[in-house]
Amino acid sequence: MDRRNIVEQIKKDLPDILAGDSKKLVEDAENLGELLGKEKRKGGTGMTTSQIRNIFSEVKKMEFDKYKIELLRPKLAYTAGRHREVLALQEVLDEAIKEIDDDEGKFDRFKDFFEAIVAYHRKWGGKD
To answer: H/E/C letters for each residue in the chain?
Structure first.
């Protein structure tokens, strides 16, 4: 599957992932982590570990606050504008943030999904 198809499939699966479908969470996290990691490993401009961990560390320490969660969207857009290799992650996370709405459980599963993406990114070659 190419980059665009992977991102679109994950975006379609987000409602199920945020509703608690752990199988889709793991599959899609691995697909996105592999996409982001392999692009870097092949000498391309894939995401570095520090880029993904910088974003993740901010999310991980967040408490459920709709306002602050929504503010992640422009931060991700800014980062993707400066570093095109972040675009696939930004597209997926932006859509996920929209899906969270006012549901704290969805926010917790969003953090789990992001953590799994970070882990698979590392597995598939994401390095600095």
So the answer is: CCHHHHHHHHHHHHHHHHHCCHHHHHHHHHHHHHHHHHHHHCCCCCCCHHHHHHHHHHHHCCCCCHHHHHHHHHHHHHHHHHCHHHHHHHHHHHHHHHHHCCCHHHHHHHHHHHHHHHHHHHHCCCCC
